[in-house]
Amino acid sequence: MKRRSFVKGLITASAGSVIASPWVARKAFAAAHTDTVKLGCLFSSSGTMANLEGRLNFVARMAAEEINAKGGVLGKTVEVITTDPGSDWPLYAQLGRQLIQQEEVAATFGCWTSVSRKSVLPVVEQNDALLYYPLHFEGEENSKNVVYLNSPPSSSVLPAVEYLMSEEGGNAKRFFMVGSDYVWPRTINQQLKGYWAAQGIEPDAWREEYVPVGHSNFQTLINEIREFAAQPGGQPVVILTVVGNSIPDFFREYVNQGVSAFDVPVLGLDALEADFEGLDTTSLVGHLNCWAYLQNAAGPSNQEFLANWASYVEANDIPFSPDVAIDPMVSTYDGVHLWALAAEKAGSFDVPAVRDASAGLTFACPSGYDISMSAENNYVKRGVFIGSLNENKSFDILWQSPDTPEPVPFSPYMNT
Amino acid sequence: MAHDQTAARVDRPLLFRIVAGTLFVLLVSLPVLGGPLSGSSAGVSPYVANIIGQIATFALLALALDLIWGFGGILSLGHGLFFAMGGYLIAMHMLKSGYVYGGVTPDIMTFMGWSELPSYWALFESFPYVMLLILVVPGILAFVYGYVSFRSRVSGVYFAIITQALTYVAMLLMFRNDTGFGGNNGMTGFTTLVGIDIGAPSMVVGLATTSVLVLLVAFLACGALMRSPFGRLLIAIRDDEARLRFLGYDTLWPKLAVWCLSGVLAAIAGALYVPQVGIINPRLLSPEVSIEIAVWVALGGRGALSGAVIGAAIISALKFWLTGFVPELWPFILAGVILLVVTLLPNGLLDLKLTFLRRASTRKASARPAE
Amino acid sequence: MQPAYAGCTFPALHLDLIMLFFRRTLARFFIPLLLIVASMPAHAQDRAAILTEICSGDFAAQQSALGQLASAGVEQGETGASWARTIVDAFEGRNLRCGDGMAVIDGDAGAVMAGTLEPVTNVDSASLDAPSVNLRLRAVAASANAVLRLFTEMEAAERLNAANYIDQRREAATGTNIGAALERETDPDVRAVLITLRASLLMSDDDPTNRIVAIEAIAEDATLRNRTMIAEAIKTETDAAVIASGEAALADIDQTLAIGQVLATLYAGASYASVLFLAALGLAIIFGLMGVINLAQGELIMVGAYAAWFTQEAIRVTVPGLLDYYLIIAIPISFLVAALVGLIMEVLVIRRLYDRPLMTLLATWAISILLINTVRVTIGSQNLEFHQPGYVAGGFPIVGDFIMTSNRLFAIAIAVLAFVAVVVVLRKSLFGMNVRAVTQNRSMAGAVGIDTRRTDMMAFALGSGLAGLAGLALSPLYNVNPGMGTGFIVDSFMVVVLGGVGSLIGAIVAAFGIGQINVIIEPIYGAVAAKVFVLLMVIVFIQWRPEGLFAPKGRR
Question: Is A104 helix (H, G, I), strand (E, B) or coil?
């Protein structure tokens, strides 16, 4: 009897202390470090988004280091707390709650897919916290608890499609939309259809197909694209809104079936330098993308950023390439700096103060543009680049905007 | 001889009572520590209450699986399907009631381009209706699938693989936006449940308390059921179905009954889970999630209801802790735990007790229930 | 109403850029050039004009310049064509730099003047702009390059390539320059292509007979693109004979296209089936023999693919000359590495769980998590790059629009090889006989003296090795990253369960059936519907016939 209850007690006690220890440890830690301000990161290091989101954790840290080297924010050292939502959308919400309620972070940087952002949105709204969201997205949202660091379709998709439809871009007249089946591609395509209707383009000039997220077998679909291309009516283009690993899978099959960028150019709206790491791009030269930053952007601030990133990767033994810089990395970097500037300007870390102080801020972005925020909405004004894929897996700059266009949160083309 | 062992395992009064007692204590203290006393040092923050509530729903889910696996000998690697069903039903209720009573347009209508909700959303704003659906719809699905499979004598490994394929199919279907349940975006943006704001601390604690309550009730009820003649029959079927058939029992209906009960319990767990986590997404239907449920039960010890509850609690707590603290390590620890349990502790943590408490060497071999 | 993106209308911007460039060009280039031009001999004058246009940044001027360059061979023969080709190459590669009144080509040996190709020393070419090459210009330039190759290449094979290329890309081909090339051409194969090419360029000729000739020439190659060309042409056609010929040609092409479509579907189904079969083969053996459900099968596939990659890297470093053969060399390596991993799995874990299949499930699932994360943490989560040797790149156009892609052919070949190897092993070797015996009746086999434990171990290694082979075959087809295996689990299990546990023929038939049905449904209802339908079909089938298609006899 005694031994049984002893053993039981032992097991329960050890289980209990194991479970309780983090809270105890954290309280002790917090007590010892009152001169830091915490920022939280919600970027996955495992699962399907790992290869893309994983880098952003390190960029946030790098930005924090830069800020700390200049004395921190309001005299406090910035500490970045990273978590791993494992590409599991509900876990983003859970960890968001943890960061905001338990860790009491001053701001959160996170999410890539719109699904993950939408799962975190209720959390930041209920707790009146701030989420800095670094990806270009479908718009149709303007929460006061989210800072939209990157472009809605008006400054990402539409300039690129306009370019393709112009003489120089090839006079595109027919469009084959291929997207992953979730909110971002569907909303983008809806806006595009509205835009084309407004231009007087007939519905039979476009086609819309969706594949599951993570789909990899594009044999049949590209066959259909070839068929579509061979029909009369003008230059066909593919508007590609698949995400993640579907992008290299799509392009690989493109090469296999011998379709070239001259025949049917692809506007890969989510295609990044990182997506081509495993491909030989000599047969893919000429395909396009559209972002607010391209690695080949000219200018000293970009050179500095790239050099800093390369040395940061080497110094900290980070498992990502030191030679690849993608747009969301720069947006995250900008986001941390913007937050720091806002906090300094507001003189406090309180979310309402920081939010109000954000209006009118500017920052010299590595893309070469001075990005800024206005009092009208929570969007950041940035420049636009259209890139053309070259043999070295990066994008040459085909066109860039002369200034930073006004972001348009709610598209006029949505409900046509 | 084996019969007595297993009967004794179900009937282990002390552990059962300990778990039931712990749950009862939790049930009573949570509203107090989470409510008026939440600010104090002994208090429980809404965040922690939320975690406890989620763990309780997982424990309920593990209980459901243990019913059919531990006692019925039927492994399902697709129980996530029922869990998700309950979740989707409650999500639809929250969105519809928010729309009808609160005027909040659900996101799903925006990105699907709907001007009004389709016909199958009718009546979802009514809480009693949804409660009924949560009991009935998973039950019907379980009945249909179970009837067809058990009649064809599909069992064991085949059954497990087929359940996995079923949940995979459901996942693929639900990931399609055109299926009409939100696709990959799932459903989120819940505002109220039974009239209370979902983010309010009182609601969080209330949901957690309710989860613990439901868990306790289910735990006691299932315990009673398994100790009843029906439970004995089930265990007999698990141990040697052919013999029982030859003895004249119709084994189809008991199996079907416990299978349907299991499905409904899982759905209730799902319905309690989703309001606490704030989003539902077809990810819940993935085979990985369903396999994790089996891991909970295996760790705790199949064939003992307390084992299922303990296993689920420990692993979920570990997961919550580790993914926040040392996310890199979590997959390795999970894999390690499973391998440990499977090779060294075939009956889960309860094996620890068995070897401590009964040192007779005969136990080790014969105490294992037939697969 | 606010425009879509206020302040950034595209055509307006275009104009700004043009004006900017023109002002710059005028100031720095054109005026000094006038002076230089006045002192140059006649043909050089053309060069200067062409260079001015191509440097101008004006899109229409650049296109015109490229057209003139393409026709350089007509008037000026080989020398003119050779110079033109240098310019086009430089333009395409963005090595042509303009500014300060001159055009310079940046070469490996230093900069040269574009007009004369003489070296120049005191110019900082990095400070000059390279005109940007958009898609349209790129297409025209590539076509011009091919036309010029007809004039400048010594090797007939090269000219043949160029001629075939022009057939696909006709932007810079005109009746005149192709005609001129034809006059100089001696090689019969090249002449044949050029004759057809010129004929089809005659589509808009005045003489109806020529138009009929052109239609027939185009109809030789029955592709959808050519069909469209003919269909469009006869829409505006007036001559009855030409219309008749056109419609006959269309009917012919349609028939060929239909055949091509059927073949394409069969091929796609066969290739998908070969992938499924490879993934399921190892599983069929393991499951059939030992009743072990190996949820780590996908990860063994991943291990095989990674082994192939390491082979590639090792060859690249030690004997780079053999790099093209890395896939072949990796065949035994992928097999052995995966077999080894499987062996370790078996000895450490699975061995203890033979009488508990449900526990093996959990154990192998844990191992799969371990494998994925170990690879992710050590090597990284990015997609690995695989060099594509000639035998897995591109494809063979067969009939109509059907292209038999080489990489899938490779996968089919490996699948066949694997199947043959396994059949030989199972039928002809002692080990194979032991495996069959144990599969049929384990206790009896043990009773007659077969070491069942050892057989299990070796069979598990064999099954794992086969998964490794699958990984090798898939590396030219799919992304290779730590999580690549997870997509194959459910499918491979369906193949094994449908085919009948332990039956190889069953696995093939099941794989083929599943693959083909999937491919047929996909274009109609989409990828997801196809998959769902196939899975449900299998599930229903299993309910009706739980032992699968070809259940092997024997006591289970």
Answer: coil
Check residue C41 and give its pLDDT.
44
Max CA distance (Å), chain B = 70
Check if the beta carbon of residue B127 is closer than 8 Å to that of residue B93: yes
CA distance A135 to A56: 11
Is residue A17 classed exposed, middle or buried when 0-12, 13-18 and 19+ CB atoms within 10 A define those classes? exposed
* Residue B312 contacts residue B58 (beta carbons within 8 Å): yes
CA distances from C121 to C51, C104, C445, C483 (A): 20, 11, 86, 54
pLDDT tens-place string over residues B128-147:
999 999 999 999 999 998 99
In order of A82, A124, A335, A365, the CA distances from A107 in angstroms are 12, 10, 10, 20
B344 to chain C nearest CA, in Å?
Answer: 10
Domain boundaries, chain B: 13-363
CA–CA separation, A196 and A175 (whole Å): 10
**Per-residue confidence in pLDDT tens, chain A, 416 aa:** 455 544 444 444 444 444 444 444 455 455 445 788 999 999 988 777 778 888 999 999 999 999 999 988 999 999 999 888 888 888 898 899 889 988 899 999 999 988 889 889 989 998 899 999 999 888 888 899 999 999 888 888 888 899 889 887 888 999 999 998 888 888 899 899 999 999 999 999 999 998 887 787 888 889 889 889 888 888 899 999 998 888 988 998 888 787 888 889 999 999 998 888 878 888 898 899 999 999 988 889 999 999 999 999 999 988 888 888 999 999 999 999 999 999 999 999 999 999 999 988 999 999 989 999 988 888 999 988 999 998 888 898 888 888 888 888 888 887 65
Cβ neighbours, 10 Å, residue A225: 25
Which residues, in sequence order, are bridge partners of residue A38? A79
Q: CA distances (Å), B78 to each of C452, C460, C528, C535, in order?
A: 33, 27, 19, 14
Q: Note whether B188 contacts A82, CB cutoff 8 Å.
A: no
Query: In a mutagenesis test of the B interface, which of A99, A118, A210 is the best target, namely the one with the most B β-carbons within 10 Å?
Result: A118
DSSP annotation string for C273-302: HHHHHHHHHHHHHHHHHH----TTHHHHHH
Q: Which of B172, B188, B353 sits opposite A122 (nearest CB)?
A: B188
- C-alpha pair distances (Å), C454 with each of C356, C360, C447: 18, 18, 14
> Tens of pLDDT along C476-526?
888 888 888 887 888 888 888 888 877 888 888 999 998 888 888 887 777
Closest to A129 in 3D by CA, of A102, A90, A162: A102
Q: Answer whether A4 sits within 8 Å of B357, measured CB to CB.
A: yes
| Cβ under 8 Å to C: A residues 85-114 | none
Report the pLDDT averaged over residues C358-378: 87
Task: Give the strand pairing for A370-373 and C110-113.
Answer: unpaired
* Residue A182 touches chain B, beta carbons under 8 Å: yes
A:268-327 residues touching chain C, CB 8 A cutoff: 274, 277-280, 285-286, 288, 319-321
CB < 8 Å to B315, chain C: none
For residues C523-539, average pLDDT? 83
Q: Min CA distance, B45 vs chain C (Å)? A: 34
Number of H helices, E strands in chain C: 22, 5
CA distance C461 to C338: 8
| A171 close contact with B: CB closer than 8 A | no
Nearest CA in chain A to C235: A232
- Ramachandran region, residue A104 (left: φ > 0; alpha: ψ -120 to 50; beta: rest): left
Strand ordering across the sheet containing C110-113: C96-99, C102-107, C110-113
Type and span of the H or E element at B110: helix B107-112
Is B280 within 8 Å of chain A by CB?
Answer: yes
